[in-house]
Each structure stands twice: as structure tokens, then as C-alpha cells.
Amino acid sequence: MTIRRMVCTLMVCISLFMFSDSADAKKVVLQLCWDHQFQFAGYYAAKWQGYFDEAGLEVEIQSAYGKDGSFSRAIDAVAAGRAQFGVGASDILVARDKGIPVVVLASIFQHSAAEIYVRKDSGIGGASDLTGKKLVRRPGDLFEVELQAMLRAEGVDPNSLEYAPIKRGVRHYQQLASGEVDAILGYRLTTPFMLRKLGVDFSVLRPMSYGVDFYGDSLYTTKDVIDADPAMVQAFIRASLKGWEYALDHAEEVAERISKELPRVHAPLETTEFNLGQVEGVKHLCPYPHVELLGHVNPERWRQMHEHLREYGQVKGSVDVGELVYDPAAWDERISQRLTRLLTGGFVAVGIAALFVFAWAVSLRKIVANRTRQLVDSNSRLKDQVLERQRAEGSLRESEERFRQMVENIHVFFWVREADSGKILYTSPGYERIWGQSSEALLADSSTFYDSLHPDDCSTIRDTLQEGLANRAADCECRVLRPDGEMRWVRWRVFPVLNAKGEVYRLAGVAVDITKRRHAEDLLRESERRYRTITENLPGGMLLLDGDMKVVAANSTFKQWFPETEHDFGGHCYSLMGQQERCPLCPCSTLFVDGEVHTQFKELSVHGAMRMFRVIACPIRDNEGKVVQGGVMYSDVTEEVKLTEQLQRATKTELLATMSSGIAHEVNQPLNALKLWTTGLMMLVENEGRVEMPKLLEQLGKIQGAADRIASVIDHMRMLIRKGDNVEVEVVDLNMAVKRALTLMSAKLAYHGIKLSLELEPGPALVRANGIQLEQVVINLMVNAVDIHDTYDRRDKQIVISTINNSSHMILSVEDNGPGFADEPDKIFEPFYTTKSHGGSMGLGLALVQTFVNSWNGKITAGASEQFKGAKIEISLLKGTVS
């Protein structure tokens, strides 16, 4: 027997010895994390297709729900030894943090199923729109970690959301359907089905779209199970992955069999439609058709998941991802070392046996020893090569995984296509997010790409691709028409990919969603257009000044008034007015000091003529509230000032005419007395020849009194007419102003047969007003009441004047029993409005009254009298106090 045959025989014996107990199927339990559904299709397929049997395993797949409705946590079952394998996700890291030695074997779902579901009518288009919205919260749920991380990644404070708890007896998706909340945190394989059943029109926000990419369902066991039977563990992994490949390739068949053979305890119970509805979601999470990624585990992603959990308080300690993630290569190395020891021992045993059997044992032992060393060296080199290859493959997988994560999580669409045929070779998930269409459809038929472009932009994209085919990088902007009717703006960049000969054999590119930027630019342009339209059409001039009082902008009206603006743009505003320094008490300068609005009247030269301007300076602040610019409005009020002066002169004239009868009465009375007493004195002189001194002094005293009364009336009129422009506010007695006005109006009232009633507050009624103007106001109100009576034929004409103490104000009320106001009461305060016939008053009295009252910070109103059903005018004035 040759050495080679002896070694082969020995290896067969060893293999039979090592695996002699594999003939009997081993019983193991797989504990699911939820009820039976397509979410776990690969494990059912591995059992039904006999893959577990081929691996020598008898597998029992247990639902998380018992027949009595009780719920079993997979982690608890695996930790207690009731199950050898379990399905979980982030809870694996939490269990590890609690000291349970769980080990991740394979990550079936390469992405988490946690998603945010929002009502389409909520106005939420992205994570940043969740601020201030109402979201159902699940306190303590591990899915919340992904929500919090997503919000932080988008710069949204999680505390800015309004959280609502899940109500007892009410599902969270029912709360969204009723409109009670704007968003819910749900599960991709269940929540969409329930919402569609309820007829809810919803949108989805996925954490992975914001760079938060957790693993989903992962297969795990414990370190004790691996140490006890590593071969069984590897066999279970291989059979499970094989089952998953079958389930994804025959999804409808497996979904229908699950519905028939595996009844559910937890709703929904109409399982066929439900399981078929999970197929698309499961394929996306795996992801399918990239079955080579099935079960792939990247330790770095698990470490990132652990960091997120620790940041939000779900775990406290650190994690050794080398112990967390199962590495078959390390186990293979231990098996290789065991085989090497057995082989070496076998060769030594054969050599020793040969010493006793053959005479030439010594020679044979040398031959065997040399051959053994050669085999050991060969085996060592082979092992090094295997390890090196495994490390290279691991590095390649990690590199590919990092690239995949980067491409799939950035907010862009990355693509690769053939240069000649145009066939799309790869698309990133960004296509679905931007285009709103399936990547699988684009990979199957590349021509559908142009169907989603705006017709006016198709030629632009073709030209950009032609630039890439010509070995030139190119970019453009185009519009994408999504199936939901929304239009997106996309920035499109194309890069040529060269082969070894330097020829373009592929094109690669990225498409970035710039919709928000374009909308912002459009809004900015529209805002600028509106601003320019408004400023250019203003009847006045407008300036924009910086903090140094230099002109930043000016509208066309200002440039017409001051042509120097065109030549001295950027100069100081005061230099445009011919000044060398800032104007005294300049409102533009003051607003930068106190940040308030200031108004000033200025007389400026415009084209050689002096014009009066009202200048209003307003502060413009930055985000921190600091005044950085000033807006200045110039209004030409030259004609307005002239009209005001004319109005005042006309009002005085009308007032004088109004009071003429009263003046005549007040003057005639003492004049008649003066005439009577003078005549009596003359008669005494004629009859008696002389007048006694006492009698003479008495008569002269009466004459002097009548003369003083006439002088008083004249002085009173002079004050009313000449001092009417004095608007100094002082503390005056409202009751006294009413009484003084009556001295001039009593004759007019008697002439028109009007009964006047006074209902004045006892004592002084002190108010803040101008005394002379206040008398003019009372006179005008009484004149207005008399004029109203003239339009109405009535015998019992009445006017009631009242002063009323009302909290911090004093009320002056004038009402009559006339016909009231025919038109809207407020019209009576308009200049030149009058109810008198042609040739009567100019209608300036009540307009002037309102001007006076406003200047005292008072208020005047007109309406109907509740007592007489006639007209009523009330004036409310601030109370005054004597210092």
C-alpha cells in the first residue's frame, strides 16, 4: 500500500469519525418575532423544499403568538434555551447589552422596516415638515431610535413635534385615518396594508433616505449553541439562505401556501391578500433581485446601530462587533487546525507501525517524515492562501457595502448605463425617491426614462449624454414629471467611463433633486419683481440706506425729483440734498440709534422750486434684530399743506358766519342798555338842569358795565378766530367750555325755537384738550344739531348736551330729536360733505371737529339717539388732572 493510499484511507476514517452522528436529524427550534406571515417566507420555504432535511435538521418554526393569544419574545426564548435560533433586529444589541451572549448569524433584511406614514393632506413632504405636527408615539419602542436619528440628521429638534399616545383599543393607523394625528411610526410590511384598507391617502418618509440605515430582520443564536455544534449552525444558515432564495423567486406560491397552512392569531386574519401584499416590501428589504447580498453582515453597520441606541439611552455599555457578528472563517480555521493535528498524528502512527512490520522501517519512516513535512508545508501555504483570500473577499465585501450604503443613502440618483446600447446597468434608490417610480421597471426597459421627462427637456438630456459619449463631462437641469402629478427639478451630471483602450464604454452619472432650490429662486425672483413693481409705482420717492447713510437703492420717482442720484449712487443721502453734513434731527440717522420709525417735514428744492415733503424713515433688521438698513419714504405734501391752510381759513370764515347771530345778540343787548342809560341820563340833565353825583355815578357805572360786556364779547371772538391754530393741549374744564359756547349760541337756538337741555357732570369735568378749539367743537356740534332740525318740520325741537364721567375718559354727548342721519354716519366727518341746500355751509365744520379731536388723542363717533331716535354725536376725551 502506497503512502498516498494510506493517507486517503486515514482521512476517510477521520471524516467518518467526525461526522458519524450526522445521520440522525437534529431537532432545533426557530422562534419568530411575530405571527406567521410572508415576512418569514425563507424559513418556511427551507422547510417545505427539504433544505433543512438535506442539512440533517428537523426544524420547528414557532410563531410569537401562542394559540391562547399569549406573546413570546424571541430573545427570551433563545436566551432560556427553548429555541436555538431567533429573528430580531435592534433588540439583539439591547440583549447583548444586558449580558445575553447572542450572536448575529445573517442579516436577511438589509434595511429596517421602520417608516413614517403621513397623511397627504397634512402638507408634510419631508422630515423638516414634521415640526409642529402631531405624531403617534410609542414610548420605549426601538423604532423610535430611528425616528429620532432621522430628525437629528435633518436638523429637526424632536421636541418640536407634538406627540400623542396610542389610545387603548384603537390602532395607531386608525388614529391617522381619522385625522386625529398627522403622522404615525409604522412597519413597512403591515401599516401600508392597513391604511389602504381604511382608504387613507398617505405618503412615506423612510429613515434610510436621511442616512439612518439600520438592519432589519436578522437571524441569531447564542455563543453556547455555536460552541456546542458549529457544523449544525452553519448548516442551518446555508439551508435558510437557500430557502430565502427560493421564496423570493417563487413569492406568490410561498405566500399562498403560508396563508393556507399557517393560520394567524393576530389581526389581520384575511391572510392571502395580506401575505401577497408583503411580497414587494420583503423584496425591497432583502434586497431582491440582488440575492448575493442575502444574509450579508457588515460589523460596522451594527456598530453604528449600537451608537444610535446608546445616544438615545437604549443601551449603556460598549459592544465588540467581532464577538457580536458570527465569522465562519474563524471557525474554519479551528477545524483546519484540528484536521492538521489528526493528520500529523495519523502519519506518526503509521510510521511507528511500519517499524514493527517491515525491516526497512527506518528508511520508510524517513520517507514518510519528509512527505509529511511537505504536506504540512503545503497545507500551511494553502491555509495562508485561503485566509488571505478570505480577508481579501471580506475587504471587498466591506468596500462594496460602504459604497452601497453611500449610494443608497445619499439624496441623489446614481446610475450606470452601457455606452452603445443605452441599457441601464444600475440605479440607486434615489431614483424611486426623486422619480417616484420603480427602479426595476427602469432596469427592465431603459426607454421608459424619457417618458418621465418634461417634453421640452428631452433634447437637453440627449445633448448632455452625447457630450458624455464624446468623452466630455457635462451637466444640465431638467424637469421630471412624477406619477403623482408633482414636478421635480433635477440637476443632471454625466461622466464618461473609459476601458483599458481609453474608449468610452459606459456612462455614469448623478441626478440631484434641486426642486427646493429652484422654488426658492423663483420665489426670490417673484419677490424682487413685486418689490420693484411696488416701489416703482409708488406715488412718492423711496430710498434704501445702509448703516453709513449711503444710498443702496432708489426708485424712479426719487430719481426724477433728485437727478443727482443717478450720478452719485452710493453716496450719502444728505449730499443729494446739497448738504455737506447730516441734516439736524435727521430721521434717517435717528432710526439707526433707537430702531424706531421717525417722521419729519422737510422743505427741499426740486428742479429749482421749493417743495414740502413728509419724510418717514423705517428700520430694516437682520435675523438677530439689529438695524442694518433704513427705508425712507418721501411724499410731496406741498399741495396738501396749501389745501390745509385754505381749509383752516375757510373754516374760520364759516365759524364766524355761524356765530354772527350770536355775536349780534350778545353785543346788541349791552348796546341797547347803553343807549337806554345814556338817554335816561340826558333826560335828567334836560329836566333838572343838573344830576346829583350818586345818581350820575350809578348811571355811568351801568354804562361802563355795558361797555365791558361788549369788550368781553369782542375779546372772546378774537380768541376763537385768531388762536384757533394753537393746538397746545392743556387741562380744561369741559363743562365751562360748553357754557361759554352757549353764550354765543343762545340767540340762534331761541330764533329757531329749539329747547336746549344741559345734563352736565357736577363739578369740574377736566379733560386734555385745547380750550379755544374745544369751544369751537361745541359750537360746531350745536350748529350741526340746529341745521339738522331745519330739515325737519317739528314743533318740539330739542337738543340735549351731556357730559359723562366714564372711567379714564370724559364723554361729551350732543343729541337731538330730529330726523337723524340720512346716509352713513361716518360720512359727516368728510370735508365738504353737507346736507344743507345749495348756498348753505361748505361742510367743513365737522371735518374740523374730527381733526381737533384726533389731535387730542380723543375719539368722535356719530349714530342714532336711543332717547329721541334722532342724531347723536359723542366725543371721548382723556381725563385731565390739575398739577
From TrEMBL:
Role played: Responsible for the formation of the pyrimidine heterocycle in the thiamine biosynthesis pathway. Catalyzes the formation of hydroxymethylpyrimidine phosphate (HMP-P) from histidine and pyridoxal phosphate (PLP). The protein uses PLP and the active site histidine to form HMP-P, generating an inactive enzyme. The enzyme can only undergo a single turnover, which suggests it is a suicide enzyme.
Signal peptide per UniProt: 1-25
Organism name: Desulfovibrio ferrophilus
Pathway: Cofactor biosynthesis; thiamine diphosphate biosynthesis
Keywords of the record: Coiled coil, Iron, Membrane, Metal-binding, Phosphoprotein, Pyridoxal phosphate, Signal, Thiamine biosynthesis, Transferase, Transmembrane, Transmembrane helix
Domain PAS: 399-472
A Pfam family: PAS_4
Protein name: histidine kinase
EC number(s) reported in the record: 2.7.13.3
